[in-house]
Amino acid sequence: MLQIAFIRQNTALVKERLALKNFGDIALVDELISLDDARKKLQLEFDTTQSKVNAASKEIGQLMAKGQKEAADTAKQEVATLKSALQPIADQLAETEKKLQEQIVKLPNLPSDKVPPGKTPEDNVTIREGGKKPALHAGAVPHWDLTKKYNLIDFELGNKITGSGFPVYIGKGAKLQRALIQYFLDFNTNAGYTEVIPPHMVNEASAFGTGQLPDKEGQMYFVTEDNFYLIPTAEVPVTNIYRDELLKENELPVKMTAYTPCFRREAGSYGKDVRGLNRLHQFDKVEIVQLVHPDKSYDVLEDMVAHVEKLLKTLELPYRILKLCGGDMGFASALTYDFEVYSAAQQKWLEVSSVSNFEAYQTNRMKVRFKDANGKNQLVHSLNGSSLALPRIVACLLENHQNENGIELPAVLHSYFGAKQIN
């Protein structure tokens, strides 16, 4: 969430950065300033009236002590009149503050000055590519045929049990899933991330804290009876571990990793790249989250990008890293890098990770602060990234490593999977 003081002091900059993000309601900035003007006016009126009440109340005591009962009674009537005027002001102030809060959360985070202009994914900037696209044999097929051929995943069974987008992993398919999760977690913990196992449902405050509410209600599954949300990513519960906490500066950075299933309704995406593992409603993902000193967050972002890139290299998959343009960024992000791997059988790039710096946008909502060397409380910066999302990684591993005799697995997975090949 942006801070109203920053908006007031940097109105032109805020409008300029929101335009880069293709935010459609720039007039909301002026509306917020008007609401804050009204809030300040009401606050001054309330404080002035309260001060008069306090002064008159103090005078009553002094008059009574002097035996001036008649003057004291007059002062009491004045206090009663002032108090009766105070409540409507308090009500108006509370209503204005509520409206200001309701409106300010509609503003997305401002994009960093490092964000390139653009409106669509086609405007994203390729930072670098790595790995080598494989030359598949003549009989190569896409992963949905491979999963059926080797009895790894049953999409129809998942459809029977739940619905489309809820696959059932079977035998070696389940074992590969488990091997990848364990490998990703080990890779992250070896890099200094602390593993946590968070809840898979969160309350409204947690969903608000990381920016899923009020922006993404339609994309989350909602448990109506208990007012809980199924998590769309481990980012939500893991970052909220430190909601309303005051850290010491020497406790930074906080580095956490977690495996969770993720649940997304994917509303509006029907018919768009939904075959096989390309787009699911339930999928597994390993996440990395950092809470850091604000002066270091962009260096940390580059470190996290390098971490994910190193992980992808070990999987022997061709990849590319994109810097997202303003129009393709998430609501809460200040700067995002996407990782895509090349699906050789489908002949397309598939997103497998986003690594983002949210600066103080999430931590302002969650009130995650640290006490600096001068004893002043500051908001930390939050970052997160997928390390990695499994469905499209599995799709590309199967497709890119297939041959006439089976599917050759990358060397780093041999000990985790217990074999070198799926056949």
Q: What's the helix and strand layout?
A:
Layout: H1 4-9, H2 11-20, H3 27-65, H4 69-104, E1 125-130, H5 143-149, E2 153-154, H6 155-161, E3 168-169, H7 172-190, E4 194-195, E5 201-202, H8 204-209, E6 222-223, E7 228-230, H9 235-239, E8 246-248, E9 254-263, E10 282-292, H10 297-314, E11 319-323, E12 335-343, E13 348-357, H11 361-366, E14 369-371, E15 377-379, E16 381-389, H12 390-400, E17 402-403, E18 406-408, H13 414-417, E19 421-422
Parallel strand pairs: 4-9, 8-14
Antiparallel strand pairs: 1-11, 2-3, 5-7, 6-7, 9-10, 10-16, 11-12, 12-13, 13-16, 14-15, 17-18, 18-19
Helix pairs in contact: 3-4, 5-12
Helix content range of the residues, please? 40-55%
Strand order of the largest sheet: 1-11-12-13-16-10-9-4
Can you tell me the residue ranges where pLDDT is under 50 for at least 5 consecutive residues? none
Radius of gyration: 28 Å
The major β-sheet equals: 8 strands, mixed
Task: Identify the overall geometry.
Answer: elongated
Tally of helical segments? 13
Classify the secondary structure makeup into a structural class.
alpha+beta
> Percent of residues in beta strands?
15-25%
* Total strand segments: 19
**Average predicted local confidence, pLDDT:** 94
Q: Span between N and C termini?
A: 51 Å
Task: Explain this structure.
This protein is an alpha+beta fold. The chain has helices spanning 4-9, 11-20, 27-65, 69-104, 143-149, 155-161, 172-190, 204-209, 235-239, 297-314, 361-366, 390-400, 414-417; strands spanning 125-130, 153-154, 168-169, 194-195, 201-202, 222-223, 228-230, 246-248, 254-263, 282-292, 319-323, 335-343, 348-357, 369-371, 377-379, 381-389, 402-403, 406-408, 421-422. The longest helix is centred in the first third of the chain and has 39 residues, at 27-65. It has 13 helices and 19 strands. An eight-stranded mixed sheet has the order 1-11-12-13-16-10-9-4. A three-stranded antiparallel sheet has the order 5-7-6. Strands 8-14-15 form a three-stranded mixed sheet, with no helix packed on it. Helix content is 41%, strand content 21%.
